[in-house]
Amino acid sequence: MSKSKKCILMLLAAMLVVLPACNNAGSSKEPSKPATQGAQTGESQEEADPFGKSVEPIAIRIGKEIDASDKSLPAGDSPENNQYTRYIKEQLNIDTKIVWQAAAGKDYEQKINLSIASNDLPDALVVKETQFRQMVKSGQLEDLTDVYNKYASPTIKGIVETTNGLALKSVTVDGKMYALPNVTPESDMVHYMWIRKDWLDKLGLEPPKTIDDLEKVAKAFVEQDPDGNGKADTVAISGPQLGGNINADFMNPNNNNYGFDPIFASFHSYPGFWVKDTEGKTTYGSIQPETKQALSKLRDFYAKGLIDKEMSIRKNAQELIKNGTAGIYFGVWWSGGYGPLSDAIKNNPEANWQAYAVPLDSNGEFTPHMGNPSNQYLVVRKGYEHPEAAIKMQNLLYRDESKFDVNVAISNYPLRMVYASMDVMDVTYNMLKEVLAGTKQPEDLDLPGYNLLKADAENIKKVKLEPYDNYDIQYWNPNADIGVWKRMYSTFVGISPLQQPYKKTYSVTYSQTKTMERKWSALDKLEKETFLKIIMGAAPLDSFDQFVLDWKKQGGDEILAEVDEFAKP
Predict the structure, then answer these.
(1) What gap in Å lies between CA 434 and CA 474, rounded to an integer?
(2) How far apart are CA 196 and CA 456, in angstroms?
(3) Which segments of 57-210 does DSSP mark as H helices, in order?
(4) Smallest Cα–Cα separation from 291: which of 541, 560, 20?
(5) How far is CA 120 from CA 69, 90, 138, 354, in A?
(6) 444: which DSSP letter?
(7) Cα 194-459-399 angle, rounded to 5 deg
(8) Is the dihedral of CA 211, 217, 218, 223 positive or negative?
(9) Pairwise CA distance, residues 44 & 534, whole Å
(10) Among candidates 127, 122, 115, 134, which has minimal Cα distance to 97?
(11) What is the pLDDT of residue 418?
(12) Which residues does 366 contact at the CB level (< 8 Å), separation at least 6?
């Protein structure tokens, strides 16, 4: 049996067990100013101090997502006792107790689902939107309306307000606020191509722009020995790992590293998203003819050996990037320094990974799908005596994140959520360029709503070498401070492609409807299985047509009607 057929059979067997339970970029040179704090209550400022230290110790029991590969904690420290938890105790007199922990990803999601089903919740958790909705429906959450008004810091409130009401709307049910929503940078939503530029240079190739260019470059990466070891061992495009997703969707629209979102988008295909058709009617991107076209191209790429033959079977998609075998992957801005590239350049200091907003569509435009500004929700168990503790922990993190040792992963902060003004990375990129040019000084950049900007300005010259406008790997010094390098390389290499205007497509909704609550799991499973089989050659391309019919019959038409009703003015 051929290796590819073995891979397909392994995948199909695995699927029976494992299925994955900024303002316009470049448009702003100066930061937008976050709004000021909202309405105050009748309590004194002392009683409602967003950073006030409790006289008596407060204990908060949490569930924690743990990155098993994280080796950053010093000897003697643990997820429950580290620089972050000790700082919370020192500043707020809050003791964090981890009642359960689970590996990041599906294990954490499953643990939360079990806690919901058994009605045995920790005092606070960070959950996704679907879990938040289930908790509200089950009456398990504390009303945070007054707590937010009293204790959320002016900066946190200002960042929330940069979403023009979208963040608060996402957590408000019957006029009550049942969670603290996060706010993500717009740059977290945009997926594009990362590529080995040193391989391009060796083979005399230009970075690809179109889907046809991408095929030519990928073919050269497979056939022309770009790593120069004399072996036919290179992979062009790294795909999703076991349990990973081919594409993002409306419930998980951001940070789908190693999926194929940019390839779909180049065909104006937006699987997993609710979009408008040419007549202005709501439809589902996964059932559109453009998605069949994109699947046909991915199927062709896979058959030609341009995509990792073990995609969706391989345990870790980063493996091929770290060991220098793969030359292309798709991801977001932070997937560079914060992803596999620090290990990749440790193994090969000449591995010159650069990012480009491609592939383009037939009109020469970059047309990504966009996400929801809020995709994490801090919830508090109904009846917990100190809901303000969870809010204060977020205030403290945002205010003082720049004080922490960046070599210790920030994911060790309890109940951490991403909080950033929508345009934070665009502003950071442009302000740091001015620092390098000498037109701004770090002391000029201590700005509300951009808490890491001043520290970034102080650190950039530690790792960036001249010429400052060339971002190739040889003009960086990661050994000077690997923690600073991760952030700065991600910022300059990852954000620079987004400095040109691009055409954005948003989902009509990022929430579930009533029928979705009952039928979405089966429909999602049908879609994922069908698309994987088509790409990997285990099913004919025309099985897409049967998928569309089955999807519509099994509840899709009902859901489409609900989403269309929701979308009406």
Answers:
(1) 21
(2) 26
(3) 83-92, 106-118, 129-137, 145-151, 154-161, 166-171, 197-202
(4) 541
(5) 28, 29, 12, 46
(6) G
(7) 95
(8) positive
(9) 63
(10) 122
(11) 86
(12) 192, 265, 357, 358, 360, 500, 502, 503
% of the chain with per-residue pLDDT over 70: 92
Q: Are 457 and 442 in contact (CB under 8 A)?
A: yes
521-538 pLDDT, tens digit per residue, is 999 999 999 999 999 999
Helix (H, G, I), strand (E, B) or coil at 94: strand
CB 238 within 8 A of CB 196: no
The terminus-to-terminus CA distance of the chain in angstroms comes to 57
> Would you say 240 and 261 are in contact if contact means Cβ atoms under 8 Å apart?
no
The domains found in the chain, sorted by start residue, are 3-22+191-369+504-567 (3.40.190.10), 58-186+375-412 (3.40.190.10)
The label of the residue with tokens 């209550």 reads 41
Residue with tokens 């992957």: 329
Beta pairing, strands 377-380 & 94-103: unpaired
CA-to-CA separations, 370 to 274, 357, 507, in angstroms, rounded: 11, 14, 7
Q: Which of 9-13, 113-117, 485-489, 521-525 has the lowest mean pLDDT?
A: 9-13
β-bridge mates for residue 328, sequence order? 195, 237
172 burial via Cβ count (<10 Å: 0-12, 13-18, 19+)? middle
Peptide bond into 359 cis (omega under 30): yes
Give the integer Cα–Cα distance in Å for 71 and 409: 9
User: Are 370 and 505 in contact, with CB atoms under 8 Å apart?
Assistant: yes
* Positions of E strands within 239-287: 274-276, 282-284
* Mean pLDDT in residue range 419-423: 87
- The DSSP symbol for 203 reads T
pTM over 0.70, yes/no: yes
Q: How many residues does the chain have?
A: 569
Query: Exposure of 537 by Cβ count < 10 A (0-12 exposed, 13-18 middle, 19+ buried)?
Result: middle
Contacts of 329 (CB under 8 A, 6+ apart): 193, 194, 237, 238, 257, 258, 317, 321, 335
d(CA 207, CA 211): 12
CB 344 within 8 A of CB 320: no
Q: What does pLDDT average to over the chain?
A: 90
76 Cβ neighbours under 8 A, 6+ residues apart: none
